Amino acid sequence: MTISQLFNVANLFVLPFWALMILLPNWKVTRQIMSSYLPFVLLAVAYLYLFISSITPENAQALSNPQLADIAKFFADETAAATGWIHFLVMDLFVGRWIYWEGQKTGTWTIHSLALCLFAGPIGLLSHILTYWIVKTFFPKFQQNETVTIGEKAAS
């Protein structure tokens, strides 16, 4: 498999997980799938392969004492760029999964935060933190009622 193919497969691989969390968050199957670490293991193995493939003595030295110009030069390489992209995919999906489970646990609405996390991970995380704070501060009864509803759905 070429670097380009691995890049494309990784991009497509994450989409069903995002779709389930965003479109079907309360579905039993979504909860089962998102309780697994398997997607992260598979992506981490792809990342490890690319990471090892992209490390040269020159790159290792640049990464050990990072300077912006050296990092830019490092990511100009296709393998290094694919490595960095899969790093984003793994970490954004992991943060998205955390947002999803926090929403399930607390009853906080997460669709907007998950969508933002899919396209710009840290912004989605910030969105969820702010949403949770707003709901907790200004609508505490809604959050408690929603949590009970989710708990009741899970029990049935």
Explain how this protein is built.
The chain has nine helices and no strands. It is mainly α. The protein is elongated and about 55 Å long. The relative contact order is 0.12.
Topology (SSEs and partners):
Layout: H1 3-23, H2 28-34, H3 38-54, H4 57-64, H5 68-75, H6 78-106, H7 111-119, H8 121-138, H9 140-155
Residues in helix, %: over 70%
What's the Cα radius of gyration?
A: 19 Å
Number of strands: 0
What's the average pLDDT? 89
Biggest pleated sheet: none
Distance between the termini: 44 Å
Gross morphology is elongated
Given the structure, what is the number of helices?
9
Determine the oligomeric state from the structure. Answer: single chain
Query: What series of H and E elements makes up the topology?
Result: HHHHHHHHH
Strand content: under 5%
**What structural class do helix, strand and pairing data support?**
mainly alpha
Uncertain residue ranges: 145-149
Summary of the model, kept short:
Helix content is 85%, strand content 0%. By secondary structure, it is an all-alpha fold.
Summary tags:
156 residues; mainly alpha; 9 helices; 0% strand
